[in-house]
Amino acid sequence: MSRAEETLRGQLPEYFRPIIEFREILKAHGYSLDKLDETSEKVKDNNYIATCDEETIAYYEKLLGVTYRFGDTMEYRRARVLQKYNTIVLFPLNF
């Protein structure tokens, strides 16, 4: 039983808990909520270069023009993307 399913079961009135149909509905909703939780964690992690996954770091490399070399570790790739990102001037030079 998943954590979300247990939470949903706790919100269900006592007289509905033994009914098989309600248990199956809670199981399906619990699975969906667990997947939603995993996806939201992935989105949160991908918002930051220091914690993003390989797919997102590849996107940043392409966006910033950083070339990927076979065998580079994720930490090294993140450091190179951060290094390139920090060279971008956020205001005009004639400011």
Mean pLDDT: 89
Task: Tell me the structural class.
Answer: mainly alpha
Specify the number of helices. Answer: 4
Distance between the termini: 59 Å
The proportion of residues forming helix, as a percent range, comes to 55-70%
| Count of structural domains | 2
Shape: elongated
User: How many strand segments?
Assistant: 0
Stretches where pLDDT is under 50 for at least 5 consecutive residues are none
Strand content: under 5%
Largest sheet features: none
Radius of gyration: 22 Å
Give the helices and strands as they follow along the chain.
Answer: HHHH
What does this structure look like?
This protein has 2 domains: 1-47; 48-95, no CATH class. Helices cover 62% and strands 0% of the residues. It is built from 4 helices and no strands. The protein has helices at 3-11, 20-46, 54-64, 74-85. Helix 1 packs across helix 2 and helix 3 runs parallel beside helix 4. The longest helix is centred in the middle third of the chain and has 27 residues, at 20-46. It is elongated.
